[in-house]
Every structure is written in structure tokens, then in C-alpha cells.
Design goal:
By secondary structure, the chain is mostly helical. Helix content is 73%, strand content 0%. The two termini are 35 Å apart.
Length: 84
């Protein structure tokens, strides 16, 4: 378990404490929700970038070929790194 210390303006700290937001459980929930929102935002941005790419739509077979090629390349890189 990691312990962190944060600094908040007095008024905000008082409000947060009165709302029950300064407990370990509440802060954990807030952090998890923020991480989830950030990941969702990044996913939406990636989807928007993908939708903006011009060109033909790939077939499921072409996508599978690209995935297999990337996996093969990654395995070769990892094998090379392990051998050094």
C-alpha cells in the first residue's frame, strides 16, 4: 500500500472532508473513476483519428494479417533483446 500526502486549499479540504471524500476508500474510488474517464477519452480520440484516415476499409482478413505480422515482429524483437 502506498501512502501519499496532498495539499488542498483549506476551504476545499473542509468541503471534501464534510462530503466524506477524504477517506482512503473515497479517494481510491475517485482515482479509479478518473483513470477510467481518461482511458475512455483516449479511446474516443483514437477512434476519431482512425475515422479521419482516408483510404479503403480493411477486411477482417487484412486486419488479422496485420495483427499476426505485428506479433511476429514483436516476438523477433523480444528474442533479439533476450539474446543480448
Amino acid at each position: 500500500m502506498t501512502t501519499i500526502e496532498i495539499s488542498l486549499p483549506d476551504g476545499l479540504a473542509k468541503e471534501a472532508n464534510e462530503a466524506g471524500l477524504l477517506t482512503s476508500e473515497a479517494i481510491e474510488k475517485l482515482v479509479r473513476e478518473a483513470i477510467r474517464r481518461r482511458a475512455l477519452g483516449e479511446l474516443k480520440e483514437a477512434m476519431e483519428r482512425m475515422a479521419a484516415v482516408d483510404g479503403p476499409v480493411m477486411t477482417p482478413e487484412e486486419i488479422e494479417e496485420e495483427i499476426q505480422a505485428a506479433r511476429t515482429e514483436r516476438r523477433a524483437r523480444e528474442a533479439g533483446a533476450a539474446g543480448t
